[in-house]
Design a protein that fits this description.
mainly alpha; two-stranded antiparallel sheet; 6 helices; 2% strand
C-alpha cells in the first residue's frame, strides 16, 4: 500500500462531512473512555484531567490517543463501506476485521477495569489482571497493529471497488 493509495481511499471516505463528524465523535468517545479507564480523566465531583501526566503513564497515554484516532477512522471507513457496498458477502467480511481490530484495542485489563475483574472472578481474575497489566504496552501496540490491518483491509475494499471490470462477457 503506497501513501498515495492510502490517501486516495481516505480522501474518498472523508470527502463527506458526515464521515468526518462520525470519525471525530467516535474518536472523542474512545478518548474519553480510555482516559477514564486509565484514571486520567475524572467526572466526580467535577470534570478534571490529571495533569501533568505521570512519567510512567505517558507511553500508555500516547498509545491510547493513537488507538482512539484509529478507531474513529476505521469505524468511519467501515460505515462508508457498509453504505456503499452492493453485495451482502462483502458486508460480512469487512465487519469481522473491523470488529477484531476494534475489540483488541480496548483491552480492559490494560486499565483500572482489571481490578473489577479481580473482584468479580476471584483468583482467576487476579491472574488475568496481572498478566494483562504486565503486558499492557505490548498489547496496546498489538491492538494498534490490528487497527492498522483493519484500515488496510478497508482501504483495499474501497480501492478494489473503484477498479473497472473489463470482462468480455
Amino acid at each position: 500500500m503506497t501513501t498515495a493509495g492510502a490517501a486516495l481511499s481516505a480522501r474518498m471516505v472523508f470527502s463527506s462531512k458526515l464521515y468526518i463528524a462520525l470519525a471525530i465523535v467516535i474518536a472523542a468517545t474512545f478518548w474519553i473512555m480510555f482516559n477514564v479507564f486509565d484514571a486520567l480523566l475524572f467526572f466526580s465531583p467535577f470534570v478534571d484531567f490529571y495533569y501533568p501526566i505521570p512519567q510512567d503513564a505517558i507511553p500508555g497515554f500516547i498509545l491510547s490517543n493513537i488507538t482512539a484516532a484509529l478507531v474513529g477512522i476505521v469505524v468511519s471507513m467501515n460505515v462508508y463501506l457498509f453504505r456503499n457496498s452492493g453485495t451482502g458477502a462483502n458486508k460480512s467480511s469487512f465487519i469481522s476485521g473491523s470488529t477484531v481490530g476494534t475489540a483488541s484495542s480496548m483491552c480492559v485489563g490494560c486499565s483500572s477495569v482489571g481490578f473489577y475483574l479481580a473482584a468479580t472472578f476471584g483468583t482467576s481474575g487476579v491472574v488475568a489482571s496481572t498478566f494483562l497489566s504486565n503486558f499492557q504496552l505490548p498489547l496496546r501496540l498489538l491492538g494498534i497493529g490490528l487497527l492498522l490491518l483493519a484500515y488496510y483491509s478497508a482501504h483495499r475494499m474501497i480501492t478494489k471497488s473503484c477498479v473497472p471490470n473489463y470482462d468480455n462477457n
